[in-house]
Amino acid sequence: MRSLIILVLLAGVAMCDDSLIRKRRHSDSGGYGFSYGGARIDAQEMRIAQLNEVMDGLEAKVGNGYDTVPDSMVRLEKRLGSMEGNDCPESRAFSCGRHSGQCVVSMAVCDGYQDCENNFDEDEKYCENPVPAGRSWSGTAVWDSCLVRSNNQFSLLITGNKRYEHFRTRLWIDAVIIESYTVADEKKDETWSSSGYYDYSRRELVLYPPAGSTGRIGMVCTDSGPSTTTCEFLTESSKTVCGTATLSRGA
């Protein structure tokens, strides 16, 4: 990239030099006593040295500021990668970055061993725990099928999690679901206990259907920003999407 930038700048310099030399040849008889070609080469070498000095300064500034890149920029990069998708085959479904050109197996993500050449699969921010005990989300669930409910206020609370050393790419969690809704003009309140896992490679929270719940419906939530998650409610058997919810993070 550095060489390309310098090459582009030199192309502009060369055009200016050609124009200047043509003007000087036209206005004078040519008796300068030195070589136009030699002067031009000397001038370009000086400009190359100056450009290298400028690039060194820019690289130093970028390098010094790397550790201070805002978390928001890191999250934006990850969201863009998620929205754009990747060309990784199903067997190696995790991309090491939008412009890396490398794919690794999903089960190798955040397992403590570097697989991506750029270490993206073990990035500290990517592999942090996004579902610690005590974290909560709340919002409104909208049902399209499976259940008939209105005004469904929905809250999700993580009560515990566990990560096994031999299987670090997933974080196993326990959660409590609290909801209130209206059915046939009757308001109901329910509390469910559920369990599931967080998949680091897909950045998804998966909760199994609570025991005794109607319709055996689970949920899958995907990161949508620093304080928001988008969830889908799916039947356990057919994986039919019954409804959605956009939840805002509390604690």
UniProtKB/TrEMBL annotation:
<dbReference type="Pfam" id="PF16915">
    <property type="entry name" value="Eryth_link_C"/>
</dbReference>
<feature type="signal peptide">
    <location>
        <begin position="1"/>
        <end position="16"/>
    </location>
</feature>
<feature type="domain" description="Annelid erythrocruorin linker subunit C-terminal">
    <location>
        <begin position="130"/>
        <end position="249"/>
    </location>
</feature>
<dbReference type="InterPro" id="IPR023415">
    <property type="entry name" value="LDLR_class-A_CS"/>
</dbReference>
<dbReference type="InterPro" id="IPR036153">
    <property type="entry name" value="Eryth_link_C_sf"/>
</dbReference>
<dbReference type="InterPro" id="IPR031639">
    <property type="entry name" value="Eryth_link_C"/>
</dbReference>
<keyword id="KW-1015">Disulfide bond</keyword>
<dbReference type="InterPro" id="IPR002172">
    <property type="entry name" value="LDrepeatLR_classA_rpt"/>
</dbReference>
<dbReference type="InterPro" id="IPR036055">
    <property type="entry name" value="LDL_receptor-like_sf"/>
</dbReference>
<keyword id="KW-0732">Signal</keyword>
<protein>
    <submittedName>
        <fullName>Hemoglobin linker chain</fullName>
    </submittedName>
</protein>
